[in-house]
Write a structure and sequence with these properties.
The chain has about 170 residues and is mainly alpha-helical. Helices cover about 75% and strands about 0% of the residues.
Length: about 170
């Protein structure tokens, strides 16, 4: 039992939070690239992605795994994004800090999603059973290149009205 839930139910909650975070995060990323800001979607993205990272540490484990390191980096990025947005109001360099760390947090969530897809989806698992095969590397490489490109565009274009740093 984790938080009063069976392991299966807790896993379902964790996956649902991750999917909500990814979906909301993709909308937020599109807004950043377009220079828009929608407070509700942003809050949902940050909260769901934060909850995903936190719940990842609640699964039983004996050793600190690479997935835990991804969770640590994600939580640090999310903390910086939250400070930049809600405390520093995107003033001065905090606008870029917000964009970079929000995009990083979303990328990490998608990165883990790709890992999970190659572990759990039969045809993908057959292409890369150990995740050291070219199809896995190509998929992760494409995701990385896409996020770097979109992150670059977002830093250049995101200048929402009503915030500091214009």
């Amino acid at each position: 039992m984790i938080l009063g839930l069976s392991l299966s139910a807790f896993t379902t909650l964790h996956v649902a939070l991750s999917l909500v975070g990814i979906a909301a995060g993709l909308l937020v990323l599109a807004d950043l690239v377009a220079g828009r800001f929608r407070a509700g979607w942003t809050l949902l993205f940050l909260a769901a992605t934060d909850a995903t990272s936190i719940t990842g540490f609640l699964f039983p484990f004996d050793v600190f795994l690479p997935s835990h390191w991804v969770g640590v980096v994600s939580l640090l990025a999310l903390t910086a994004a939250i400070v930049a947005l809600y405390i520093k109001a995107l003033s001065g360099p905090w606008r870029a800090v917000y964009v970079v760390t929000a995009v990083l947090a979303l990328y990490l969530n998608v990165f883990v999603g790709v890992v999970q897809a190659f572990q759990k989806i039969g045809p993908l698992r057959a292409l890369a059973p150990t995740q050291s095969e070219p199809p896995f590397a190509i998929a992760q490489g494409l995701v990385l290149v896409l996020f770097v490109a979109l992150g670059f565009l977002a830093v250049r274009r995101f200048r929402p009205p009503g915030f500091g740093g214009r």
